[in-house]
């Protein structure tokens, strides 16, 4: 089983690594990080480089596709070679997935038309622009399309997918292996629970979250 | 404020990326991934490369040090240039931290002697070998030494540290920014909660968690 994780400039690291750290532990999984070129891609903060080991043409039939998001998503919205590759490999995938604003890229390729999907809470409404139906859930399954909310949600999506692919027992082994027993020191992970002034600050200016 | 995240061969990716994704969002933070050599380090599964942008000699005075773990920790336990560097930079840090079995490396340098500390649940008892006092907590503060449990716990540690360094408001902004509203699909993230057969499987053979 091949799992392809897409990289592009100014991606958000945990968007890619949450699914990686869970899906890569499926028995027999072969994960490949793939980009329009091989070599390191820098994340949106500019201080981390993650290596694409294959270019698009080398990965033609992944069983699972993972599209991460991040500020660089904005430069991946035009139709072209990347969208053509996504549509081509999607024809053969068992699961086509995204984390964070990666769902906007998937939606822009046309694949989420008429489907329920999610994204980072700040980008959720944009899904409708591309004919998807935004939902506020953290992980959304609609047929073989699986979308996750912002950044850290890829861990939850990954575990859910391990369960679908390899069974509950294996998924629980992975959860225990990565000791995923979350204990956030604050209760601010969603606009539902965050103090209103925190939500307002992020809505007002991304410097509260991105690099100053 | 400089934050140094150490890389070595066969590290576990999320050990490094959990703290990265939180600490890198501290205002004015400059994160540097550092290793004994520059260039990509492969993780323990062999399918992911993360780039060290600096070598040890180029990073002499970080404010925060993060030591990740992973199976490659076993090869970093002998005293030598890496341990000397850790001890040297520790003399100037505000916070010296680890995730997962990174605490065993810190402990082997002597820095955790007599201190409360944690590690991956499967490695916890080993801390005592190096004079540290193992605790079952997810994130342990003892003076300026902060250790986190297995793999995913670095997110919780990172958020707690953002709070100490930049205040609760900023930490809440980071939590909301990374949409850290965890909803694991199983309740198996700790030996306290996992089905006994899951815990037994991991204790019996790491293939239930690592590459087959």
List the keywords.
homodimer; 2 domains; 7-stranded mixed β-sheet; two-stranded antiparallel ribbon; 20% strand; globular
Write structural notes for this entry.
The structure is a homodimer of 212-residue chains. By secondary structure, the first copy, chain A, is an alpha/beta fold. Helix content of chain A is 29%, strand content 20%. In chain A, helix 1 links the parallel strand 1 and strand 2. In chain A, 57% of the residues are buried. At the A-B interface, helix 1, strand 2, strand 4, helix 4 and helix 5 of A face helix 1, strand 2, strand 4, helix 4 and helix 5 of B.
Short description:
The structure is a homodimer of 212-residue chains. Chain A contains six helices and eleven strands.
Please write out the topology.
Two copies of one chain form a homodimer.
Chain A lengths: L1 E5 L6 H11 L6 E6 L3 E4 L6 E4 L1 E2 L8 E4 L13 H10 L4 E5 L2 H7 L7 E2 L15 E2 L4 E4 L2 E4 L4 H14 L1 H10 L18 H9 L8
Parallel strand pairs in A: 1-2, 1-6, 2-5, 6-7, 7-11, 8-9
Antiparallel strand pairs in A: 3-4, 10-11
Helix pairs in contact in A: 1-4, 4-5
Cα gyration radius of chain A (Å): 16 Å
Low-confidence residue ranges of chain A: none
Question: What structural category arises from helix and sheet content of chain A?
Answer: alpha/beta
Order of helices and strands of chain A: EHEEEEEHEHEEEEHHH
Oligomer: homodimer
Largest interface comes to: A-B, 75 and 75 residues
- Based on CA inertia axes, which overall geometry of chain A fits? globular
> Judging by the overall fold, what is the CATH architecture of the largest domain in chain A?
3-Layer(aba) Sandwich
What fold name goes in the CATH topology slot of the largest domain in chain A?
Rossmann fold
Helix content range of chain A = 25-40%
Domain unit count of chain A: 2
């Amino acid at each position: 089983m091949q799992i392809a994780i897409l990289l592009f400039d100014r991606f958000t690291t945990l968007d890619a690594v949450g699914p990686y750290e869970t899906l890569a532990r499926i028995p027999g999984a072969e994960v490949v990080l793939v980009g329009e070129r091989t070599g390191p891609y820098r994340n949106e903060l500019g201080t981390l480089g993650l290596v694409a080991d294959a270019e698009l043409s080398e990965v033609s039939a992944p069983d699972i596709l993972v599209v991460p998001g991040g500020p660089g998503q904005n430069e991946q919205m035009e139709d072209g070679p990347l969208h053509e590759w996504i549509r081509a490999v999607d024809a053969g995938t068992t699961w086509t997935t995204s984390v964070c604003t990666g769902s906007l890229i998937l939606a822009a390729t046309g694949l989420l038309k008429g489907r329920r999907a999610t994204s980072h809470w700040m980008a959720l409404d944009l899904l409708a622009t591309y004919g998807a139906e935004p939902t506020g859930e953290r992980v959304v399954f609609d047929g073989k399309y699986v979308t996750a909310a912002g950044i850290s949600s890829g861990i939850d999506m990954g575990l859910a997918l391990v369960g679908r692919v390899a069974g509950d027992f294996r998924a629980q082994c992975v959860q225990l292996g990565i000791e995923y027993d979350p204990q956030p020191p604050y209760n601010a992970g969603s606009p539902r629970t965050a103090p209103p002034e925190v939500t307002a600050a992020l809505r007002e200016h991304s410097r509260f979250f991105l690099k100053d």
